[in-house]
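Exercise 3.2. Students should predict the tertiary structure of the chain below and write it as structure tokens, then compare their answer with the key that follows.

Predict this chain's 3D structure.
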Amino acid sequence: MREAQLGSHTIQTHGVRLARKHTHDWVVLILLAALVVALHFAPPFSRFVGKDMMTDIRYPVKPSTVPAWAVPMISILCPWIVFISIYVARRDVYDLHNAALGVLFAVLITAVFTDVIKTAVGRPRPDFFWRCFPDGNQLYDQVTGDVICHGEKSFLKDGRKSFPSGHTSWSFAGLGFLSLYLSGKIKAFDRQGHVAKLCIVILPLLLASLVGVSRVDDYRHHWEDVFVGGLIGFIMAVLCYLHFFPPPYHDQGWRPYAYFHMLEELEVEAANSNNAQNQQSTGGHHIAMSEQQHNRTSRNDLESGSV
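Answer key:
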């Protein structure tokens, strides 16, 4: 009966109502996205870089294996494809809405967190030397010993945003959320010992790890940047997932909290409707009894001649 009731809860029937209920959440998401864009253009802290420090940041400049435009595709679009596929199979608008909302919060909060730290720390990337001195001619301040760069300004500004890795944090936020989502859907922690389920759960995390490894291989980040970026992203993924879904190992971990709240509301409405019907039938029964009693009294009065 519950599944039959849920069958009518689709995007067409309840999508607008559900979105309106979470209007403030969508507004916050828009503000977070605007903040991410603003932080992208913020100048980083100009950390002191001396000649002796150039040894560890003299790696060659290489093109990124995973370009910046591909990161939102990996962290947001890939999970959304899975969410939509499961919605087509189950027609559960509550699951689709909360999953889409949760992964957006995970990625955007991670992005703000990462960019703020990037800007505040200002750590040089491993290829900073060639960003600073593209022709190889080194120039340092004679008093402080700090570098005097003559490379392209925008490329140089990006060269001071190594810690933590944004590619890695975004990937672990989105794909980490997807991993938790899948573990709940397939009941990976049902204590039945099906290792194949665990392999499915690990796949998104493996993809996120490969994104992080590519950043080290491309000399865009130090290993510490990737490690901390992945940690930030996965922590945010866990926090946002648990905000909308029960833990994956929970008996009800296969549905969002909103689904069970909806069932409770339906049960309350059904109980109230039954009570109203019972009261109505009881009231009608009392009225019928009163009319029968009145008629019987009137008939007795007539027969006794009192009327």
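Discussion points: Confidence is low (pLDDT under 50) at residues 1-6, 302-307. The radius of gyration is 31 Å.
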